[in-house]
Amino acid sequence: MKGRWFIVMAMLLSSCYYQEEDATLYEVGDNFELCVDSLHLQSSQPLHNMPIDTACEQICVRYGDPLVVAETLVIPEDSVDSVWVKLARDQFTMGWTHQRIFQESVVPDDPISQFIHLFSIRHLGVFLIVFAISLIVLLWQVFGKRKPHVFFLRDILSPYPTYLLITLAASALLYAGIQHYVPETWVLYYYHPTLNPFGLPLILSLFLCSVWVLLVLTLATIEEVFRLLPTGEALLYLLSLLGCCILCYLLFTLAALSPGISYILFALFILVLLLRYFRHSRPRFLCGSCGKRLKELGKCPYCGAENR
């Protein structure tokens, strides 16, 4: 087991060979998709310090159009942007635009890049809506005196939800830290995404590893909840856990703006969750009749057998 961890750490550390300055964001032949309403391209090749204006013939491409980089051109005298990019929708529709406008108007034609783009512009609104729904359902259950299973308040006897929250907090800190302190690394990953955590800068490798662990823990948590609770109660519990996950993500992405505070908060967060788990959610016994996990001896809530 120790040998496996040694190999994993060695692979992570060896990935530091990566040099950002030697990499380019895009190359001729790379495919993109237009993510703005429209983009006007200059049909004629730009000359020295020649701006885009109405005197030049304009070609318009629309939202969702596939584009490929056909050529790049550097004009040092251009006061707007020295780099021009020639984009082609097809063999009859192609034109030039400044690199800055090009990068603001397209998303790489890769599912990972498109997910990152969609997540970055939509996640806050979706998170707030889901969190509000989770809170309303929770309050409805509590005031209805139904005593629902709720993460942290009336938890299930399983470590997976606790591990899931801790991993999510670590992922949120890494994600926010990359975007705020090494944004060029995140931009480079955006243009050349991969699900392989090796061969990347160390901080990106750690982030992708945390994402994979988060995915495994999510599946394990869902399976565990449905195994321990009836379907209706399981759905309510998962909804409460989802609300806690959203709150955790927002909290630690904001806390990452201040490294000192974020590290202290993360340590306290782990301490509170683990103390809560070991005191209230860790199963100490097994029912002698049905084999279900029990927090204490006595009547089994699942089969009604007495355990002494």
Question: What labels describe this entry?
Answer:
308 residues, alpha+beta, 2 domains, 11 strands, 52% helix, 15% strand, elongated, disordered N terminus
Characterise the protein shown here.
There is one protein chain. The chain is α+β, with helices and mostly antiparallel strands and 308 residues long. It folds into 2 domains: 31-108, no CATH class; 111-282. 52% of the residues lie in helices and 15% in strands. The chain contains 8 helices and 11 strands. It has helices at 2-14, 99-105, 111-143, 160-181, 183-191, 202-228, 231-255, 259-281, and strands spanning 31-34, 38-42, 58-62, 66-74, 83-88, 94-98, 106-108, 285-286, 293-294, 298-299, 306-307. A 5-stranded antiparallel beta sheet has the order 6-5-4-1-7, with helices on both faces. The protein has a two-stranded antiparallel sheet with strand order 2-3. A two-stranded antiparallel ribbon has the order 8-9. Strand 10 and strand 11 (306-307) form a beta hairpin. Helix 4 (160-181) crosses helix 5 (183-191) and helix 4 (160-181) packs antiparallel against helix 6. The chain is elongated. Mean pLDDT is 79; it is low at 1-23.
What's the rounded overall pLDDT mean? 79
Instruction: Note the total helix count.
Output: 8
Multimeric organization:
single chain
The string of secondary-structure elements, in order, is HEEEEEEHEHHHHHHEEEE
Radius of gyration: 26 Å
The fraction of residues assigned to DSSP E strands is 5-15%
Taking pLDDT < 50 over at least 5 consecutive residues as the criterion, the unreliable ranges are 1-23
Straight-line distance between termini = 38 Å
